[in-house]
Every structure is written in structure tokens, then in C-alpha cells.
Amino acid sequence: MYISKIDINNFRNFKEKRIEFNDGVNVIIGHNNAGKTNLIKALSLVIDNERPKRLNTDDFNKNVTLDELKAIAPKISISVTITKGREETPDDLVTVSNWLTKLDSSYEALLTYEFFLPEKKQEEYVNTLSVLTNETPNALEKAWKIIKHEFIRFYGYKIWGGKITNQTTADSESLQKFDFQFLDAIRDVERDMLTGRNTLLREVFDFFMDYEIKKDGTKTLDEKYQQIKIKKELFSEKASLLIEDLSSRINNGKQEILSYATKTGASFNKAKPDFEGSISENEMYSVLKLIVEYESGIKIPATHNGLGYNNLIFMSLLLAKMQVNADVDYLDNNAKVFTTLAIEEPEAHLHPAMQYKFLKFLNENKKEKKVRQIFVTTHSTHITSAVSLGEIICLHNQNGETKIGYPTKVFPDVKNKKYVQRFLDATKSDMLFAQKVLFVEGIAEQLLMSIFANYIGKSLEDNHVAVINIGGRYFNHFLHLFDSEKENTIPKQIVCITDRDPERKEKTKSSFKKCYPYEYNQDLVGFDYQVNPSADIYAKGTHQNITFFSPETNKGKTLEYELLMSNPSLKLLLTESIDNKEELKDLMSIFETDDSTVQDLMDRLRDSSANTRIKDSININTTFDSEEKKKSIIASRYLNSVGKGENALELSFVLSENLSKKGTDDFIEFNVPKYIKNAIEELCQ
């Protein structure tokens, strides 16, 4: 069996929400305050028998109106559905039999936690809050204070089994069959595990003591019991000898110690104090300390390890304890049937390589049935890149409402899903965590977007925007994840920046080739033309959460081209890796001359086939004015002279350095291309 879903009503950031789970590993991700910890807490309220069940007013969802609060006392309801799993044990169905809501080829059982005000207090509650009206200053805040100070102490909780309408209390014996272990992000592992005085370690020691006998399949239970009994008796005899030896060594000193008791009057009525003792195996555990032994033979206490290393050790001990709890031969009727492990932010103390190893470790324990179901909350892109899309559950909080996304359910075909799965490495999976995403085609845009934002007084970082380079025009694959008009998606704000990329082909030829904007649609008799089809989808205002931005229709091309169209005389853009630098400097200087003409710029172009094409096309063009043609000449030469990756790195450096001089005479004005400026402003509203 496994927990297939949870329905959370009125608990913390969950107003009314259902989350579905996998039979196995569940990796729960989302930005800060999306509700990951609250989800695990909700689970624990239903199935964790060790944690307190009482709540307080801060645990209610506060997204309610005054009229709703006045009508009836707020109530928290959390329902967990338990379903037949891929791998069943004989005790599974027996454990949940009293809570069944469906029984056919499969089965479903329901457990519901409720935190509520008793019925007998409802009338008093309604009368007390009736004095508040919508005209009362801070009425909603006052209502919650009344609940906190006058009614929360009367609240109680119940865990119901089966359909809630039956109001049948879940039997505690069956509830005790659930083992829910939760490791929060902030934990003191040294306190929790490092010596045998600790309860966790003592329980593990006790179970694994004489383990070679306990796991021997050739012996009957009675034979195992007798063999272990002999070992215990032998240990007791040896321990008695140690105690006797200790007593003899302290005998004379003991008389001196106890003489003080006689003098103080502690000895009376013919009774006197003395020292005596015995020791059991369990008591001997307290002298054992966890150490780490290196290959060289050096041994150091675990207290000297790093926190991350000790966390891994602690998790291994916890899984060992879960094995203890589930062993029927050892605990008989007290053995746990369903073991669940929940871990909050394992990356808090683990570097990336250890995160991957840790996840592999958890999966192995699942396969070996040492734990039945695993829940991991994380901000780690390394963890999400190491699991399948089917194991990821995304939480996204938007305007106070929590949305749930299931990446594996959103793709229309397997091809899209496989593409995204391969793409999500440790850098790209940041798109799943950020509040907003900016998709770009290449490395140049990725490197420069944050700097462009700073030039227009915006910050992508402050607005929690992830810039994701998808290496081409493959937007469609990723938009399936975020399209808020479809189910199971992650409805965060998405902006895509794409090149215009005009192309043409001769009527007699079969393939399209790149062309300049001033060549586009200039010879409809001899050529067919096309532009990037992505450039015209999802224009601003046409979709709920996805918007595309691109250069101007019929006049735009690529980022590098648009940089010079917006800054035709900015020599700052001529970085070290640029070819034809002197030619470009001269073109910029000519452009700056007030009475310069298009012919002046064309005369400066050196002889080459590429430049001949530029001249011929500019001369033929009838739609661009003189200013646009001059800019186009410079932009075309720049485009043909730039190497994208290296130039982008150099540009990011020089533009950042220039920005640091803002407010001084050394600062040089730089114009962010309009389509990029619009995209950034859309994200930074």
C-alpha cells in the first residue's frame, strides 16, 4: 500500500488543495514559502504517532472573510488516501480494513485528521463574533484574536477512519502500525546519535545484537532464542567477574568513603550504605561511541566530522531503526507495517556529489523494502536533475494561492517529455524553483539579460527570475510545463525572448537561408520568405502567463544585430574578439557625422562578397529610410564580425564595468534593445 493523495483544507497556506503522490519516491519542490514544509507537517498530523496533534490559531489558513469567520468556527481537515500499491504485504489490507472506502480489484482507505471547536461551543462562538462588522476597524484581525484568546483552548482533534460522514474514530492499534520518520532541515545530529546513551542508537544496537543468529534461516525461532539466551548468560557471567574485580579494588577505599556517611548520621537503625552493582548488555551500550576509522587506521570521534557527513550517518541509523520497527520476528504484534521517511532539505548539509549519492541510497532502501514510501522536500537543482520527472511534485504560491504541478502529466507526447527530462541538468532545473522564468535562445542572451535589466533600473534577481538558455527555438517543449490554461502545470509567469531570424529561398531551390531584414520581402518574384514562427505566438495579452518578445517585424534579426541597431555608434561594444574592428570603428565615426549619407558608409566597406551583398541589398531596398539603412549597414557588419560565446562574455564584462561608473563623467550611455527592455519590464512589474 502507499499514500496516493492528501486533501488539505484550511491548514496554513493550503485553503483547499489535493496533492497526489507516487508509490515510491516523491521529491517536493518549489520556491520559498510555497508550502513544502507545511505539506509534510500535514502528513505527519495524520500518520505520525509520535508528534503532538494540537494546533494553534496560526495553523489556520487566514485567507477567509469576516463573514465566513462569523458564520462558523474555522476547522482544519486533512485526509490521507491509502491505496493498494505495486508491492503488497499480507498485513497491508488487514491494517487498513476498518478504514476502507473502496474494495474491488484494488482498495482505498481513508484517514482524516480534524481540528475543530466542539459543537457545544459553536453557539457561544457565533454570539461572541457577532459584535464585529465589516465597518469595525481591523475587524478580521480582531476576530482572530478572539479565537486565539477565548476559543482555541476548547479546540480538540480527532482522527477518523473511513468515510468522514460515518464519524468513526480510527483505532489506535492500527494507527500504531504506521512508522513516520521526519528529519527536518535543522537538526542536532550530535545530540541525536553519537553515543549509546541515545534512545535511537540503543534500539538499533538491541535489534542488531547477535544479528548473525537472528537472520540465520536454517534455525527455528526457538533455536535462535536458546542460542541468544546462552550468549546473554555468558555475557552476564563475564560482567559479574568484572563487577567483583571492581568491588575488590575499591573495597578499602569504600570503607573510607562510607565512614563519612556514618559520621554525618546517614547510618541509623542498624542500616548502612554500601556499593553493589550488576550490568546488562543494554547498560553497556552507553560506553560505545560512534567513531570514524580511516584506511590508515586512524580513529576519530564522530563529533569531529563535518555536519553533512554526520547527517548521512544519522539517516543511515534512522533507516536501521525503521528496519527494527518493522521486524515481526523481533516485535511481534508491535511491528510496524507501513514505514515512511520524510526528509526536509537534505542539501542543507550536503555538497552536490553527496546529494546525488544520498538520493541513490534512498532509492536502494526503497527497492530493498526497508522503507515503503519516501518524501523529500528540496531546493536543490542537483537532486531534481537526478530524479525522473514522474517523481517530482511542484508547489507554486501565487498571490496567496498554492498551485500544484505534476511535470510528468503535462506533455502531449513522449517526445516532449523525454526532451525536457534530458535537458534538466543542475543548471536548467532552476526553472522549476524560480517564481518567474525567462527563456532565451542562447548563451549570449543568458549572460547579458541580468546586466540589461540593471541598465533599465530593474533586477531579475530581486524578482526571482531564472534565465534559462534552451539552446535554440525549442520553447514549445518547456511551455507544456507552465501553461496555466491546462491541468497539472506550474502556472508561473513565463517570458520568452526569441530572434526574428528572417530567411529566404530562391523559388527554384529547396532550402531557406538567412537573410538581412532589409532583404526581407524585397523580391517576391524570385524568392519565398519566412521568419521564426515562434516570434509571433503569445504576443502580450494573448495568454494568461506566457508572453513572447522579439525584434520588430520585417526589421529585426538577432540579439547582436539589435544591439547595434539600438547603439550604432557605441564603440564600447567592439570587444577584443571582434573581427574587422577598425572598419567598424570607422563606420561608427561616419555615422556620428551629422551630414553622413548611406553612400559614405558603403564606401568604407572593404571589398568582400559579404559586403557586396550588403551594398546591393541596401540599394534595392525601398522600405527603409536613410537612417535605418545606415544603422543596418553597421549592424550587419557587426553581426558578421562577432563570435557569439566569447563576445558575450566580453560584453558582459565591459557593460558591467561601465555600469559601475554610472553617475560619473566616465559612464557611457547604452540603449537596451526595445524588445528586451519590454520583456524585462514585463517580468519586473
From TrEMBL:
List, alphabetically, the InterPro entries matched.
AAA_GajA/Old/RecF-like, Bact_Antivir_Def_Nuclease, P-loop_NTPase, TOPRIM_OLD
Q: Which residues form the Endonuclease GajA/Old nuclease/RecF-like AAA domain?
A: 1-383
Molecular function as annotated in GO: endonuclease activity
Q: Which Gene3D superfamilies match?
A: P-loop containing nucleotide triphosphate hydrolases
Q: Which UniProt keywords apply?
A: Endonuclease, Hydrolase, Nuclease
Stretches assigned to the OLD protein-like TOPRIM domain: 432-501
**Pfam families named in the record:** AAA_15, OLD-like_TOPRIM
**PANTHER family cross-referenced by the UniProt entry:** ATP/GTP PHOSPHATASE, ATP_GTP PHOSPHATASE
- Protein's recorded name: ATP-dependent endonuclease
Organism whose genome encodes this protein = Dokdonia ponticola
